[in-house]
Amino acid sequence: MPYVRSVNVGGPQEVTWLGRPVVTGIFKRPVEGRVRVRRHNLEGDGQADLEKHGGEYKAVYAYAREDLDFWAGELGRDLSDSAMGENLTTVGLDVTGAVIGERWRIGSALLEVVQPRRPCFKLGLRLGDPDFPQRFGPAVRPGAYLRVLEEGELGAGDEIVVEHRPAHGVTVGLVAYAYFHDKSLAPRVLAAPELAPGARQTWERFRRHAG
Is the pTM of this model over 0.90? Predict the structure, then answer.
């Protein structure tokens, strides 16, 4: 049974990275009890850069514990839940194989998979490794951004029920692979009508340039 191992939230804070101050909300921490799911985020959570993080189509970020374990092996050190700055650390769910538009019922909330993550320098900041973002993307273990279709509450231990999976078969992993390895797959990516609007604009540009 797929389930939520931890729910992680945190607000923006200022830290020093590579000799300069950075304000970031990537330092999430697991919380106990039920957490309110709102349209743009989880209660108690916040983002510093709302242009690149947060908003309706990046309201919740999910990452699989299995992928954290992969990176722990690659990096040679333990990684705690929330290490990728994720809101939901999942177990037993192939997040990379999730279909764009797939809907997850968690607690009383309904969430929809809308795009993979594209890493920025703050992921390197979180792990203390400035080169990590360049490794993260091409490895095609991006995690999934979710939008909130129905507000509600969820908590650690909740089952993840896949209530709907579109037939087009465009997965989070396919979109990430196409971006980092083969942008000629743009027409395939665009076959997913549920793809987040900002991502769709990017892929429309890729398709035009390929043509």
Answer: yes
